[in-house]
Amino acid sequence: MKRTSMTRTISVAAGAVLGLSVLAVPPAAAEPDGPSSAELAAASAAVDDTGVDGIAWHTDETTGTVVVRTDSTVTAAERERLRQVADTVEVRPTDGVFDLRLAPGDAIYGPDYRCSMAFNVSNHKGKHLLTAGHCGEEVETWYADEDGDVLVGSTVAASYPSNDFAVVRYENQARERPGGFTAGKAEVGLEATRDGTASGEHSGEVTAINVSVKYEGGVAMHGMIEADICSEPGDSGGALYTGSTALGITSGGSGDCSSGGISFYQPIIEVLAAYNVELD
């Protein structure tokens, strides 16, 4: 930190010679106890630049660290490379593989994939549902059954990678569409529930926000929510919520709901703003 020294003139008390002054120099400013925000941001960027896949990282300014979770594909040499980025980097190995929770068959169906729907939304163009962007990138037309007999709608917009959300317009506008949610922001320590058609409903705690993650194959996401809630292939696009407050859309994770795991979510508020839609 650049120090600046300051001086000030103090008038001498009554009885002293008028015009006499003394110079008082305050103590030098103390050095900060930990790394600055700029130093942490630089360390976070350097983690991204290592080229290591299978990692998820976020800045924890309360502890002055960049926390990096590594999945089972990351080698010991790669973990050491991450530690060498900066003294502020804390590497935490995690079981399982960080991957997108996409799978063939269940919930809303495409020709080769199944995903889950998150929330119903609407705008002046009609009624829609939200799902994961990597689902919307793969599938143009969605059905309610595996055989493709009951049409749900078509993907009209998708943002992936970096973000992970998509909008599907209902072709049958009379279709039953449950709602009752309002949008909110996730906070560390918040109890939340994830619902997906592959593994059902599971609850846990938000463990980090503004997380970056590199999935298997190097696909990167940023600004995600991390929670200690399991998920499985087919849960992509499902809802993360607390009570009647919508928090996010399931993107990916590691592990499964037998052995446990963690998962990552696209924050809902960004989605609503990007597509100018409102929750039903």
Automatic annotation (TrEMBL):
Domain Peptidase S1 per the UniProt entry, residue ranges: 127-271
One GO biological process term: proteolysis
UniProt protein name: Serine protease
Residues annotated as domain Peptidase S1A alpha-lytic prodomain: 36-87
Catalytic residues (positions): H134, D164, S236
CDD domains: alphaLP-like
Protein family membership: Belongs to the peptidase S1 family.
Disulphide-bridged cysteine pairs: C115-C135, C230-C257
Signal peptide: 1-30
